[in-house]
């Protein structure tokens, strides 16, 4: 690891020492840096960045730097945003958690020096995460029609429920009468889908989960399907506009849109340090097996 890209969206004063410790830890190794320009501007006057660094603002500029890895500074939202930036470049990503829960950006900010040492000593492996690919008759999310966590269709505001006719491999599955529907990847199974009663899937599972949001039929439950399936949706309701999301991005759509979801042709590549695992993350972040009385 010699060429390191740094990405962030915001920074709080209490995080300045963490970022300082990060660059101090890298100072022991022969590294060159690329830093996301808007984030670098936010640190002006508060932090001393490396004297020489490559400034990037988009995927094309990041590609020209040819980074060995990209480190995100923030929460899971920042990491999801970095996946959209990296896209098909396949740059490995590792997140340092400056947010709250941090299931994706799992490295605690107190352990930033140890994380740098582990990274630079190549004590890690790459976890390839399946992503979702949105196909639509008209592009509604620009060029980045993919998501690491989930795709959703949802009613807008306080409007009445929607009906989402759902097809699997062009065969009718069901009409969901609900506030919305979530299609989550294994990585996204610990996000919005989980809060709506969906199952947790291991990151290497070859599956998607369809999770209804507040269904009006109590027999409707989350459904796990193979990630080789193609899902197609037709949406209707009393309102004229609905909400479609890909991870943290959202767009208003009409029922004229024709939408389908399939497995993205390229994965997201996340750096998994050798002393961490998905099981460990579940225990630490979700408090599994812990008793607050002890």
Q: What does this 3D model show about the protein?
A:
The chain is an alpha+beta fold. It has two domains: 3-130 and 267-286, 3-Layer(aba) Sandwich (Rossmann fold); 132-263, Tumour Suppressor Smad4 (Sandwich). Helices cover 20% and strands 36% of the residues. The strands form four sheets. Strands 3-2-1-4-5-6 form a six-stranded parallel sheet. A six-stranded antiparallel sheet has the order 9-8-19-16-11-12. Strand 4, helix 4 and strand 5 (93-97) form a beta-alpha-beta unit. Helix 1 packs parallel to helix 5 (112-120). It is globular and about 60 Å long.
- The number of strands is 20
Widest sheet, order of strands: 3-2-1-4-5-6
CATH topology of the largest domain: Rossmann fold
In the residues, how many domains can be counted? Answer: 2
Biggest sheet: strands, sense, closure? Answer: 6 strands, parallel
What is the CATH first-level class name of the largest domain?
Alpha Beta
CATH architecture of the largest domain: 3-Layer(aba) Sandwich
Q: In sequence order, what are the helices and strands, one letter per element?
A: EHEHEHEHEEHEEEEEEEHEEEEEEEH
Treating each run of at least 4 consecutive H or I residues as one helix, how many helices?
A: 7
Oligomer classification:
single chain
Helix content: 10-25%
Radius of gyration: 20 Å
Mean pLDDT across all amino acids: 90
CA(first)-CA(last) distance:
42 Å
What is the global morphology? globular
Approximately what portion of the residues adopt beta-strand conformation?
35-45%
The CATH homologous superfamily of the largest domain is called Probable inorganic polyphosphate/atp-NAD kinase, domain 1
């Amino acid at each position: 690891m010699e060429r390191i890209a740094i990405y962030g969206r915001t920074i709080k004063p209490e995080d300045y020492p963490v970022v300082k410790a990060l660059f101090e830890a890298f100072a022991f190794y022969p590294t060159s840096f690329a830093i996301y320009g808007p984030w670098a501007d936010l640190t002006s006057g508060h932090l001393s960045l490396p004297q020489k660094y490559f400034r990037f603002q988009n995927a094309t500029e990041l590609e020209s730097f040819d980074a060995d890895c990209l480190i995100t500074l923030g929460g899971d939202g920042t990491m999801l945003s970095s996946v959209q930036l990296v896209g098909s470049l396949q740059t490995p990503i590792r997140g340092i958690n400056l947010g709250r829960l941090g299931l994706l950006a799992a490295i605690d900010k107190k352990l930033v020096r140890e994380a740098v040492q582990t990274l630079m000593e190549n004590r890690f492996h790459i976890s390839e995460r399946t992503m979702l690919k949105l196909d639509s008759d008209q592009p509604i999310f620009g060029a980045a029609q993919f998501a690491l966590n989930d795709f959703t269709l949802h009613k807008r505001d306080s409007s009445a429920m929607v009906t989402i006719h759902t097809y699997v491999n062009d065969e009718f599955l069901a009409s969901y009468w609900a506030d919305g529907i979530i299609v989550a990847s294994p990585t996204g199974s610990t996000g919005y889908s989980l809060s709506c009663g969906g199952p947790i899937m291991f990151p290497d599972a070859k599956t998607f989960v369809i999770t209804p949001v507040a269904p009006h039929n109590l027999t409707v439950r989350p459904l796990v399907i193979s990630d080789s399936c193609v899902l197609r949706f037709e949406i209707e309701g009393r309102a004229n506009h609905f909400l479609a999301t890909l991870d943290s991005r959202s767009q208003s759509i009409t029922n004229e849109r024709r939408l389908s979801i399939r497995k993205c042709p390229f994965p997201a590549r996340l750096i998994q340090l050798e002393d961490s695992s998905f099981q460990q993350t579940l225990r630490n972040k979700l408090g599994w097996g812990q008793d607050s009385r002890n």
